[in-house]
Each structure stands twice: as structure tokens, then as C-alpha cells.
Amino acid sequence: MDSKDINISPTKTTNFIAYPLQFTPILKDRIWGGKKLATLGKQLPSDTIGESWEIAMVGDDLSYISNGVYANLDIEKLITAFPEEILGTKIYETYGKQFPLLFKFLDAKTDLSIQLHPNDVLAKKRHNTFGKTEMWYIMQADEGARIILGFKENSSAEEYLLHLDNKTLPTILKEYRVKAGDVFFIETGTIHAIGGGIVLAEIQQTSDITYRVYDWDRVDESGNQRELHVDMALEAINYKVKQTKIDYSKDTNEANLLVKSPFFVTNYIPLQGTKEIITDGSCFRVYICTSGTCDIIADGLVYTLKMGETVLMPAIIREFDLKGNAEILEVYI
């Protein structure tokens, strides 16, 4: 059966064909991007690819299904037709026919700008969108690679602006040297930057709103600096010190909690052998393979998930197995 033969109607909510959904990555060229996403199996069209959007429903950026009978359909069409089957009862009641999360891999060849994201209230007021709470799972880091997250000490708008004007803002911000397996949770309003030499998986609310406040004075090929959002950021910044690095357990074949927030829950599963998953159907689950290979066994069929791949398990699939030797991130709401 081909996707063009399937009846996808806005009112049709029966006869959903349930299976693990994979998507064609949306690759984003960035001034700070590089070539490392090729190590995650991405086919790169340039040497400055900074982001691979794995599952997205953000404006015109819609992920297209790459496998099974729904191949070549976009996520919006499928959710419109089958919201409860895909999203789950709880998510459909809360978010309607929106996919509430955005999943990415990032390759920072050079430093990203120092930036932050607004909370839900401010984002709704200014942009009619969600805020952007996010987390990072470091997959690879060059020796000495670092990230910037929050202030070293409680600050203020006045101190922040003084250092911004003097181009000394990094001196009052906290740096972390990072390695593979490090996890960070970035609440809205937290000033931050990913340093060069890092590949990471990012899980976030569905939003692409970023307030860029300092970009290391770099310019593009035409000699132009990127736009800054200093005035908009003032009200959005949290000037208090935040605890952002997450310590976590690594018990084999267990769902080790990384982040539990109102916006998403993320577990780390070091898989060796088989793990049974049973859900209540209230929410979809997303699995990200950060190393190794994992088979997903659902209804007697086997679907393989390799390092650098992401899969959406529709909420209607309530029982399945993970089997293999892999490190897996499990995400739901």
C-alpha cells in the first residue's frame, strides 16, 4: 500500500495503521555548523550544517515520514487525521493537534551566539508561540570543549548591560567543560551558548524563538553581523544563578531519569538485551539512539534504530520491546 492510497481526512480518526514512525531529517545550514553530523548518518549538502531537525512541526518546518505506509506524508497531516492515536489522549486534550516537542542534533564547529529563550507567557504575548525550555545530551566533545550556562553569581539588568556594552559579558557567565554523556537542563530565561567542538542531542518545546545577545563580533561572507535582540532579551532573562547540570544513574536496562519538567520527561536507557515497554496510551514516546543499535519489536515486527536516528512511537502502541546494545534517550510528556 502506498501513502497516496490512504485516506487522510481531517475528520477520519479510525483505521490508523500503527507502527514506529521515522522521519527525513531537516538539515539547517548555520554560520557555526560543520560536518560532524555525517557521523550520525546524515547526508550533508554543505560543510556548515549545524542542525538536523529530527521531528519537527514548527511553522513551515514539517517533518516527513520516511518509512512504512505513511512514507512521504508530513507530520501535520497525519496528526490532523489521527490526533489521539499518535499524540495520546492527554496530549491531545492539552495541545490539540500540535506536536509539542522539537527534536534535534546539533554540530557546533565554532561557538554559537550567547542567547536565551522566552517563557510561555512572554512567547505567547510577543510571538503567539510556546516558550523554549530545552535540554542537552552531549554526544561528542573535543578536548577542552565548553558550554556557557547562566551567571556565575546572581546578576541584574544593569550589570548585564554594562558587561554587554564593554564586550565582557562572558566574564560573568558560568562555563562547563563537557564530555560525552553530560546532561544539562536549560529553563527559559537562562542565558547560554554551545561552544565549538560539540555534538549534542537537543530536546525542547516546539518553538524557534531565540533572543541573541552577543555573537562574538563575527560577520558573514558579506561582512554583516547577525541581528541581536538585546532589548527583547532584557525582560526575558533570569538573572539568578541556576543549577543546570544533571547528575543521573546509569542502571542497565532501566529508565534512568534525566529531566522531569512540565514540558517533557527524559530518561536514559543503557540497553543490554531486551527491555519491555508498557504505556497507558496517554502520550506518544520518542526514542533517540545516541550509540549502538536497537531493535524495536512491535506487534511481531522488527524496526531497527541506529545511532543518530530518532523514532516516534504513536501513543496507540502500548506494548513493545527494545532489544540490542545501545544507549537510548526516552522522551514523553
UniProtKB/TrEMBL annotation:
<dbReference type="Pfam" id="PF21621">
    <property type="entry name" value="MPI_cupin_dom"/>
</dbReference>
<dbReference type="GO" id="GO:0016853">
    <property type="term" value="F:isomerase activity"/>
</dbReference>
<feature type="domain" description="Mannose-6-phosphate isomerase cupin">
    <location>
        <begin position="259"/>
        <end position="332"/>
    </location>
</feature>
<dbReference type="InterPro" id="IPR014710">
    <property type="entry name" value="RmlC-like_jellyroll"/>
</dbReference>
<dbReference type="InterPro" id="IPR049071">
    <property type="entry name" value="MPI_cupin_dom"/>
</dbReference>
<dbReference type="InterPro" id="IPR046457">
    <property type="entry name" value="PMI_typeI_cat"/>
</dbReference>
<feature type="domain" description="Phosphomannose isomerase type I catalytic">
    <location>
        <begin position="23"/>
        <end position="129"/>
    </location>
</feature>
<dbReference type="InterPro" id="IPR011051">
    <property type="entry name" value="RmlC_Cupin_sf"/>
</dbReference>
<keyword id="KW-0413">Isomerase</keyword>
<dbReference type="InterPro" id="IPR051804">
    <property type="entry name" value="Carb_Metab_Reg_Kinase/Isom"/>
</dbReference>
<dbReference type="InterPro" id="IPR014628">
    <property type="entry name" value="Man6P_isomerase_Firm_short"/>
</dbReference>
<protein>
    <recommendedName>
        <fullName>Phosphohexomutase</fullName>
    </recommendedName>
</protein>
<dbReference type="Pfam" id="PF20511">
    <property type="entry name" value="PMI_typeI_cat"/>
</dbReference>
<keyword id="KW-0862">Zinc</keyword>
<keyword id="KW-0479">Metal-binding</keyword>
